[in-house]
Amino acid sequence: xxxxxxxxxxxxxxxxxxxxxxxxxxxxxxxxxxxxxxxxxxxxxxxxxxxxxxxxxxxxxxxxxxxxxxxxxxxxxxxxxxxxxxxxxxxxxxxxxxxxxxxxxxxxxxxxxxxxxxxxxxxxxxxxxxxxxxxxxxxxxxxxxxxxxxxxxxxxxxxxxxxxxxxxxxxxxxxxxxxxxxxxxxxxxxxxxxxxxxxxxxxxxxxxxxxxxxxxxx
Length: 218
What we know:
This is PLATZ transcription factor family protein. It comes from Sesamum angolense. By secondary structure, the protein is of the alpha+beta class. Among the domains are: 9-64, no CATH class; 82-145, no CATH class. The chain contains five helices and nine strands, in the order H-H-E-E-E-E-E-H-E-E-H-H-E-E. The strands form three sheets. Strands 4-5-7-6 form a four-stranded antiparallel sheet. Strands 2-1-3 form a three-stranded antiparallel sheet, with no helix packed on it. The radius of gyration is 36 Å and the shape is globular. The chain starts with a helix and ends with a strand.
């Protein structure tokens, strides 16, 4: 499948949507209390919009982005009209079923978890494959599947190369030249040669004056 054909698998507005930053103040309606940009026009694809901007997008397909724990979500009832969201896990937030727009990596799945997102490893219910729309877009790409299959081989090749480099460095240390590695610890200042002739002389042995009075130290 070529790149152009792969792009046609998804609506043209999906990738721009996933890259947008929502819940920022609208530059055109900054003086209004309804200036928060949480809307998006699927027909114009000209960035996040506030509710007042929608006056210029009549009869357009506009969707509302919501927020959950600082992550963007959209209601299933809205997005499923325009996009196939099968295999993406849904959540119930404020009594509404939603899906997340982008990945939320989870390096350490919970104990007993048997299913995780195929892209970012977030814990999932067994009936789903992806945690977000973005992960589905990436995870169903032929390039991603090909890379995923080749990754173990690349890791083994990188490991072999690293071992070879380590052996070469070790071998060179026994030959005519030694590999030097940068050091981030302060170097010890060079020792200064001591001139014993100018060094401070030790205290001399007290000598008694001939007439038996004061004692002098030389």
